[in-house]
């Protein structure tokens, strides 16, 4: 059902993923990668306060480890 909405070219995709789960395996981000060839996806990482102590949501460049075709989500 969700696919029928996000496949529309005039739809803006809001991919939301909690930081206390593995972002690389997020269903929302995976779906956005499949249907978004033009870069109309905005990524939101929530629950940063619930991350395990000593973990980091960002890599050395200051981006998340999950990227789309042309940049960081």
UniProtKB/TrEMBL annotation:
Residues covered by the Dynamin N-terminal domain: 1-48
Keywords: Hydrolase
InterPro entries in the cross-refs: Dynamin, Dynamin_N, P-loop_NTPase
The organism's place on the tree of life at top rank: Eukaryota
Molecular-function annotations in GO: GTPase activity; microtubule binding
Pfam families referenced in this protein's UniProt entry, alphabetically: Dynamin_N
SUPFAM superfamilies reported for this sequence: P-loop containing nucleoside triphosphate hydrolases (SSF52540)
A GO cellular component entry from the record: membrane
PANTHER family according to UniProt: DYNAMIN (PTHR11566), PHRAGMOPLASTIN DRP1C (PTHR11566:SF80)
Name of the protein described by the UniProt record: Putative Dynamin superfamily, P-loop containing nucleoside triphosphate hydrolase
């Amino acid at each position: 059902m969700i696919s029928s909405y996000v496949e529309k070219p005039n739809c803006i995709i809001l991919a939301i993923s909690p930081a206390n789960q593995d972002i690389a395996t997020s269903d929302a981000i995976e779906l956005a990668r499949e249907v978004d060839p033009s870069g109309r996806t905005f990524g939101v990482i929530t629950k940063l306060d619930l991350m395990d102590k000593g973990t980091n949501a960002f890599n050395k460049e200051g981006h998340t480890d999950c990227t789309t075709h042309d940049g960081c989500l």
